[in-house]
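Case study 2.
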Amino acid sequence: MTFMGNGQNRASLQFEPLDEVMIMGSQIPEATVQEAVKTSKKSKWKDPKRYKWLLSPALPVIGVAALTAYAIAPKKLRALAWTGPVLVHGVIPALDRWIGEDTSNPPDEAIKDLENDPYYNWITKAFIPSQYIMTVLGAWLATRDHVPMADRLGITVTVGALNGIAIVTGHELGHKHEKHNRISAMLALAPTFYTHFAVEHNFGHHKRVATPEDPASSRMGESFWKFLPRTVIGGIKSAIEIETQRLERKGKGFWCLENELLQGWAITAGFVGTTTLICGPRAIPFLIAQGVYGASLLEVVNYIEHYGLLRQKDENGKYERTSPEHSWNSNYVVTNLVLYQLQRHSDHHAYPARSFQALRHFENSPQLPGGYASMLLPAYLPSLWFDLMDRRVIEHYQGDLTKINMDPERREELMKKYEQIATSIATEDKESTHTIP
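Prediction:
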C-alpha cells in the first residue's frame, strides 16, 4: 500500500497488485480483498431509474384525474375522454423517440439486492387501487344519460387502454410464487376478463415460446387480425388444459377451490357485480367493451414479441432451449418504464422469475425498429407490418427461410415472394463473413 504524497486523504490510497496484503501484521488473501472490493462496489451502485419506475403506477392516476376533470366540466374538457389512446399511441411513442434508448445493465453484483428490495414489488402493486377507481369512475360516466356517444366511446377506450397496461402489471406479479402476488396478479387482470393469462402465460407460453405449437407466438405472414382469434381461443384452451392437468396430479377435479382459473373468474365476477350495483346494468356492456380493447392490447404485444422467430429442433426432434434470439427486444426508455421493461423480453424468457428492475439487455437479441408502444399501430396494418418486419426476420436468419416460423397457409407463397431477397441476404452475409479486415 503506498501513499500518493503528503496532504493526500484516504481516498487517494492505491493498492499494489500483491498476492497478499499486510494489514496490522496479518496476511489477508487476495480473494478476500477482491470480495471486499466487490462489496464496496455493490454498496455504491444505485438504480438510476429507482423513482422513474413510478411512471407506470402513475398512469391510472392520470386516468382518474382526466376522468374526474371531465366529470366536473364535460363540455369544456371533452378531449380528456380520449386520454388513454392519446397516451398509448401518441405521447409515449413520441417520448420514446425524443428520449431515446438505454442499453445499460445493472452490474452483476447488484442483481441480488435489486431482487430483494421490496420497493419494486410495492411499485407494481400500487397500480391496482387507482386502476379500480378509474374503471368504476369510467363506468359511472359512460352510463350517464347526458354523456355524448363519442365521449362514451372515448371513455371506454381510455379505461381499456390503461387496463391493458394493467395486464403487464399482472404479468409481473404473476411470475412471483407468493400467494399475495398471485392474487394481486389476478386483481390486475380481472377488469379485462383475462385472469386465465396468469396460468397460460407462465406454464404454456414460456414452455412453447417461438414454436408453431404456441398460440401466443405469431408467424411470419400472419396478420394480427388472423393471429388474434388463434391466440385468444388457443390461450383459453391451453389454460384449462394446464390447470386440469395440475389438479389431476394432486388427485383433484377441475371444480375445486384450488383451481386458479375459478379463483380468477370469481374475482372478475365480483368486480363486475360490484360495479353494476354502483353504476347500474348499463355498466355491463361498458365493462365488456373496455375489457375487449384492453385484452387486445396485450395480444398485439404478444404478436410483436416473437413474430416469425422459431426455435430449431435437434436430431432427436426436440426444440432447442430458449435463447435471446427468440424474442424481439427494444430499449426505448419510456416504454420500458411504463411496461416494467417487458421490452427486454429475451432476459425475461431466460429468467421468468427475475423482477423487472433487474432485466438485462443482450447484444445478440433481435431489435425492433421502435418501442413496443410505437409498434402497435403498424401491427394493426398488415401490409405496413409485413414491409417493416419481414425483411428483418429474414436478415435475422441470414437468408435461411427454412428457419422461420411461417404461416403454414402462406408458406409456399412467402417462399416464392422472398426467394430473391433471402438469396441476396445470404450472399451478403457470406461475403461479410469471409472479408478480412
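The first strand starts at residue 20 and ends at 23.
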